[in-house]
Amino acid sequence: MKISRVAGCLTLALLSFFSQAQTSILGFTPASAAHETEVESKYKSIPTPDEERRQHRIFTSEPHVAGSKRNNELAEYIRDEWKKQGLEDVIIRRYDVYGTNPKSASLEMIAPTHYQATLREAPLDGDPDSKDPAISGAWLGMSISGDVTAPVVYAHSGNPEDYDLLRKNRITVKGKIVLVRYSNPYSYRGFKALTAQREGAAAMLVYSDPQEDGYKKGKVDPDGPWGPEYHIQRGAITYDFMVPGDPQTPGWASVPGAKRIPIEQAVSAPKIMALPLSWHDAKPLLENLDGPLAPQDWQGGLPFQYHLGSERVKVHLKIEMDNGIQPYYVVEGRIRGAELPDEWVVMGNHRDAWVFGGVDPSSGTASMMELTRALGQLAKNGMRPRRTLVICSWDGEEVGLTGSTEWGEQFADELRAKAVAYINVDEATSGPNFHGQAVASLAPMLVETTRTLQDPSGKSLYDTWKATAAREKEEGKQSGQMNDSGVSDGSLADTRIGSGSDHTVFLNFVGMPVIGLQFDGDYGVYHSGYDDFYWMNHFGDPGYHYHTLMSQLWGVTALRLANADLLPFDFASYASNIRQFVGEVGREKTMWGQPPSAVQPGEARKPMLELKPILSAVDNFEAAGQRLNESLSRKLAAGQIDPKLALTLNHGMMQVERNWLNPDGIPGRPWFKHILYGARFTYAHLELPGLTEAVEAQDWPTAKQQAEILQRALQNNTTLVNELNSRLTH
Ligand SMILES: [Zn+2]
């Protein structure tokens, strides 16, 4: 941003005298840092809790699922607001995608007794929105239509190992209806659906057990944040872990008139019926199941013993869907950079919600509207960022990361040439605990940014982040899940990035560094009709202080990337993360083909794949990164930088992330091109995806080939970083 440097000069001199931290910012010369500090303090003073709340109410006043009239009206509302706020080039982009809508659903237990499932969420006292007749019933996006009567089998979390256990008990699910539950830790329901489909089940019912997000956790809505008896977790079952976005345009944009593959050939389109249930509707089924007693860790929070089932419980399930082509709308706006308009910092949040979207995503949307108001106000006052800020309101994230994927595919080449980074905010706030995610090269700048923000507790966001991380580490230890994310600065940001939100296309397809920001807390109404304005005002963020903090954090992070003299990438930090990832592959059981007993005494065990060449390539990359860090700091400390040199250095540094892309993608999933970051089918993070999956599958020729690809990328980036360094030292 550009502002008059005369005003405030004296105050800044004093500030820099008292606080070194405020005038030293990664990527900035001392003079630019002083200026940036002034811009940021003006920026931070603009968002207010009252405005956050007002915007939140607008977005949560009616259900606004992807493709609905209301969601499209909200796109127009955002466009009009952004124009008023001073954003430029505001445009609504249309994509004609394969969408999904429910027509009707019914579930009836016909044996051993009769029970008609309600498939609705009962109104709650004190929450007027919960009485809205426009709230949808139970449905899962991308389920197929069908009509089936079959016995029910309980399959726990619906993961492959759960079916192995059923097989051990001589229970088949072929042609039957599997009843699975939402699991903790989270496993994407689309993976449960694919697993049920592969097992030959006729349909999948997925319910919310009170043990996971209901009364076993604490007080339920309207008295507490946890899920009440009737809450239904809607969601899509799209196989977007294979390829996200419109299933009929894998790898290219669904602009009107685009080529489309037949839906039968689309790998991400499910071929199974699926329906979500509240525990109220699941209970009659579960308590009537006979057959073997389910194992201890399959038992849940309902007050009876769970059984695996045989032929006793029969249900009639009928689902009618209206799946087909429909328009989704992405709203795009920008603030053009004053000096480097062709370098972009991209930001986004999705607009579509399963119902009201109190947390998911409207907390993020409210924070985005205050972000854009504050940025617009600065621009109107003549304070323009050096680089261009591009801001998008995505559509259909909930269906298959659809809007962001189509937009990212449409502008992939331009983004690869211009984009510095993407900053995603999906659920901004469901509580006070901060979680920051970043590719490792941006982790240090994110940590530094949190030092300049104040948490509602009065401490710095950095301090409360550390406290949260320490507490979670302790809890992780107690629950037996080893969590090696310590609380040193270097391990504060989560650098293990899976899928499940709109950053996916930018990281995995375009090759852009990404950052994700979120405050969370106790939250049991995810994707239900109870995730609404009432819930936010009573439990999530009653004073809207965390919404406000999110707008501040999001904007300051973007401004630092937009205004830096030399982009604040840290490749030494990247290298040390990659070393950890490689170390984890080295510890995979499959790496050691023969058991220790098969090894002759005195003979060293040999791994199936030699990782030493990769580790030495990582060492070289780290050394290059360290040298560059030192040269960059020296250069910045010396003041003014020649603009031509800055351009060369910045574009070189932007190229590093692109160099992690393999155009062929990871084996079996060509859309996912990043060789460091991927996601498992559950959405969980998966580092070195091609190599790791090959090692797990003991496919040694593929593992060797993937190792070579990784080694080559490390060598290329080492050469590139060394070249950039030589520009600074000669
Ligand atoms: Zn979301």
Topology at a glance:
Elements (H helix, E strand, L loop, with lengths): L8 H10 L1 H4 L6 H15 L4 H12 L8 H17 L2 E12 L2 E10 L3 E2 L23 E2 L4 E9 L5 H9 L8 E5 L7 H10 L4 E5 L2 H4 L21 E2 L36 E5 L1 H10 L25 E8 L2 E12 L4 E11 L11 H19 L6 E8 L2 H4 L1 H9 L1 H7 E6 L8 E6 L4 H8 L10 H18 L25 H7 L3 E7 L12 H8 L4 H19 L7 H16 L25 H26 L5 H16 L18 E3 L5 E3 L1 H8 L3 H30 L1
Parallel strand pairs: 4-8, 5-6, 6-7, 7-9, 12-13, 12-14, 14-16
Antiparallel strand pairs: 1-11, 2-3, 2-10, 5-10, 11-13, 15-16, 17-18
Helix pairs in contact: 3-18, 4-10, 5-10, 10-18, 12-16, 14-18, 19-20, 20-23, 21-23, 22-23
This protein binds zinc ion.
Characterise this structure:
- The chain has 730 residues and is of the alpha/beta class.
- It contains 23 helices and 18 strands.
- Strand 2 and strand 3 (115-116) form a beta hairpin.
- It is globular, with a radius of gyration of 26 Å.
- The two termini are 31 Å apart.
- It binds zinc ion.
Question: Care to give the gist of this entry?
Answer:
The chain is 39% helix and 16% strand. The protein has 23 helices and 18 strands.
Beta-strand portion reads: 15-25%
Question: Largest sheet, described in full?
Answer: 7 strands, mixed
- Structural class assignment: alpha/beta
Q: What's the shape?
A: globular
Distance N to C terminus: 31 Å
User: Number of helical runs?
Assistant: 23
The residue-averaged pLDDT reads: 94
Poorly predicted ranges: 1-21
- What level of helicity do the residues show? 25-40%
Strand order, largest beta sheet: 1-11-13-12-14-16-15
Count of individual beta strands: 18
| Rg calc | 26 Å
Bound molecules: zinc ion
